[in-house]
Amino acid sequence: MLVIHCPYCQAERPELEFANAGEAHIVRPNNMSDMTDAEFEKMFFVRENPKGVNLERWRHIHGCGRFFNAIRHTVSDKFLKVYKAGAPRPSDAEIAELMK
Amino acid sequence: MNPSGQQQFRLPGRGSRIGAKSVRFTFDNKPYEALEGDTLASALLANGVHLMGRSFKYHRPRGVLAAGVEEPNALMQISRDNARTTPNVRASVQEVYDGLQAQSQNRFPTLNFDIGGVNNLLSPFFAAGFYYKTFKWPAAAWDKIYEPFIRRAAGLGQAPTEDDPDRYSNRFAHCDVLIIGGGAAGLMAAKLAAKKKQTIIICDENPHFGGWLLSDTDIRIDGKAGPDWAADTITELAAMNNVRLLNRTTGIGYFQQNMVVLNQRITEHQSKPESGDARERMWQVRAGKVIIAQGAIERHMVFPDNDRPGIMQASAAQSFLNKFGVAVGSQVAVYTACDTAYAAAFDLAEEGIDIPIIVEHRTDIADDLLAQASELGIRVITGAVVEGTGGKLRINSVTFAKQNGNDRETIEVDALITSAGWTPSLHLYSQSRGKPQWDEDTQRFLPGESPQECVSIGACNGTDDLSDIFAEAAKCTGSRAPRHAIEDDVSTMSGFIGATGTSADKGKAFVDFQNDVTAKDIALAVREGMHSIEHVKRYTTNGMATDQGKLSNMHGLAIASKLLKKPIPAVGLTTFRAPYTPTTFGSFVGHSRGRLFDPIRQTPIHDWAVENGAEFEPVSQWRRAWYFPRSGEDMHQAVDRECQTVRSVAGVFDASTLGKIEVVGPDAAAFMNIIYTNGWDKLKPGRAKYGIMCREDGFIYDDGVVGKLSNNRFHVTTTTGGAPRVLNHMEDFLQTEFPDMRVWLTSTSEQWATIAVQGPKARQIIEPLITGVTISNEKFPHMSVVECNVCGVPARLFRISFTGELGFEINVPADYGRAVWEAVWERAEPLGACVYGTEAMHVMRAEKGYIIVGQDTDGTVTPYDAGLSWAIAKAKPDFVGKRGLQRPDLMAQGRRQLVGLATKDPSKVLEEGAQIVADPTCPVPMKMIGFVTSSYWSGTLGKSVALALIEDGTNLIGKSLYAPMADEVIEVEVTGTVFYDTKGERLHG
Amino acid sequence: MANANVATPNNPTSGNRFANSSVTIEAAAPAARISFRATPKGAKDFGKTLGIDLPTKPGLSASNSSLSALWIGPDEWLIIDTKNSINSLMPRRENANFCATDVSHRNVAFIISGDGAENTLCASCPRDLSPAAFPVGTASRTIFGKAEVVLLRIGKTSFRLECWRSFSPYVWDLLIDGAQDAHI
To answer: Does the structure's ipTM exceed the value 0.90?
Structure first.
């Protein structure tokens, strides 16, 4: 069972309070109707599922209720960073720095 | 031999762990005596019983090999009664209690004479890979011969035939320091960490803390014997309120972020457990720091016929002697490649037990060991091997020679103790995702870097010397090195790995006792192309028994490495998995059984339904009243009556389980426009609407009626099972896609009890109970909502219908649910109305073609497919699912569409799930064009009604299709989905 | 008091009481409860109406005689009044800055007290409930077995546990099962 730092509660909480909510930073465009089928497919169906650094969403569903983003290494299960929903995606350089 | 013939191998005055009180137990129904504190193994040995089991594959007679958790042979069935019987209990771990019943396993008819022993003679046919090679052909032999054979041969012991009556419990715990293992290293670490005011948990799998200190009589710490020092340390720790001591508690799993799971056995050693005490407790410990002090496990020597009863680890013999006062034999030979076996030999010799020979595999032995042996009159032959042993149910001779084959000699013995050195226990370190490192000098794997806040100390870290161990304990707790006067005779615990002797040797040299894997099996696996240790393991099953290779892994690895001519680390190490030792299912289940397996949710009206004879059905976690049979009625009669009463008079229904979400805020309508396919701008306060929500891919996700209470407040209802996921779905869009909308979502599912009153007399029933509003058809038409008082309590009243009749749903605060229900029923009953359950509800909604999400839809059905295109506000710029619905496949012709099916023979009721075909005469496999989603007998209509998803269904209306069943083909006609009151006039009554 | 025309309330937990040598578990009396959601301004305004500052730090609660306000999330509070009626608590009118929803009947509560209270809860709750990590006044939504609950530490050895009413038989049974081991 993981311990996850909730950026809203500003504290570590047991994984049992959380639900994973899939890949982070998938932009839902305002003008969805204008998307091509290929664009929609990429946005809705295609996921990275990397072995390694994963940017993912979690919800502190049995805690404060907030969705937030996390960078987790899928091999070590280590959380490199958690940040609030809406905060920008950390740059690749920043992620590389966190990996050190 | 004592006069009673009992416990003739017990040595008076020896044994630090046993008491004076004797207890009685049975083994294979024969009564024996033991002393309090004995393990089952020590008790049997005290009585001269070495034959304790039969091996798994060859059914060879086996005795106890070890004195601890690594025991592979002496596995027993321990029973209190039919419900409390446990197979595969290690006799070396099970503590004896008065009345204990043990049975040997894997033998028929008796342990002494086992017919399965014929497998031993057939063993040339049972070599490694036997299963893979043999059970391939002919295919027809599978179910007749092979599978029954494998099933018969698989497994050891008997599972209980009755429910487990014991209680199991769980505890989540947090501490600064968790110490796994209460030997010298763990105790010293606990002592030092406790002084730093840290919260500490220290556990040990044995009944007593002390580890090896309890088995070795030569150790002195500050002048105290090992057991005394351990006892004093425990007394000291027990007095501190920041220390929790857990004996009989095994660290079974090490997970992420220092989560370690401990299994505590509470009543397994008790003759009569206190009722109410849990049998076992699982501790889920989150520790700031973990100190692993698991110790090491002595390896056996691998040589021909090394498995006869009476052959055991040297350390086991030493433990049986020093902990339990039991001599493992009267003429005990020694075969060793490690110094520690000498201590065992000397301890036995000092008790007057004959040690005829120490066969020493090494050539270079410390002078002081040889001197001491000579002093005790023990002969030592160095550079030698044991070539074989004799005996049937017990060893009676040992044959040894120089490694070059010279000086062969056979002598009579009744026991042989062996040591190939010690394997540091890396199980938990490895589970913590640490990578074991090979130490070439000492020929063993040791812990490498720790990926977590964790440190290994003591023998599991390869530290053999007690002073060094104490220094490690000090270092890992950030303490100054303690000063202790230490006397210890052990200098090194390394030894030899692999098989001794030559390939020309006859007889089986066992590597893995429990799975009967020999050195030759491993050689065969390598010859047949298994070059990775993971493959060798699976091909031979080495290390795959319940002991998980605690004894065998290193030997197997060394043998493979030698044959492959590759260094050991290049051959690889198999992965250690939790649990470290076999753990009962009960312990994992903990509190979650029976009523506590999953919450069973009941409505405020539930008890009334129970009192009035309802049958119930589970709907997600809820129990809902299914139907209310009257005396003599079966389900169909009851449901028929309920439906027809509702249609002709009225019925009362508990709809409290429906999900309810309050959507509130200035942007509530805008948010509803996003979440639902419908448009919400034009809905006026006081009106209600049926809403559909899709996922982004355009498929129906949930549905329900929504009432608009004010411009900023909606009362949303969801399906019973969908309530939690719908709220999560809404929160997701609100928080992450539309965070600027000022809307708040609150679950009110359980705030309200919901009472549906449906049928022509519905208004007449409820009208007198309502104050504050008029509910005439004109003032309160179909699809209205109003806040009012019902029975004097604040209520939300809906005019809605899921039956097609005039209908109302009364929502009152849950505490008032039962009283209001009773008030409604008091009005309804004299008018001839009924109460009805979910089955009648299902029938009536199917007669009206109202869908149930999850029954008539399955996550691949769009609102168009379901005939709900009217619920899609196409003009809206955006809603969840809008883009998904434009996908070519979702717009394609010929998709499965929801239609009605009328059976040609109206009395035939289709099976839900039945497949539908266009041509029942076409050859199998037929093309299936759809399936039945809902099907019922409609008493009201006097015929069956069904809904189905059929390819291009709406274009097939009027056509005949077929449902091929096992014994007949049912012809159906495709119809519209509404079977009853097609114009919908009754709603407006 | 009972008005013949008014329905009689019926609470599923009423009368529940369990005690052993280390812990007492009792159903709390019915209470008025509001699930309160608000912008920072809305929280401040409604706090003034209630006469209590809604806590803004995660995990805190504030109380004032019979009234408690528990921080649940960054825009969410659970307001509990063990004495006054829901009508006296609910805001008079809707407000663009907040949303108050009556959940008095949605929740029920148990009071767990005694030296074994923490252990009773730790049988099924994965949180660190030691006084150092969860001091008096701490409030949190969390998980208890398979039920979502809100925990409030009301004293050194006492907790208030709120759960949804239909989960209360499960939560009650789980508390009792945990209480068997509370002395360990």
So the answer is: yes
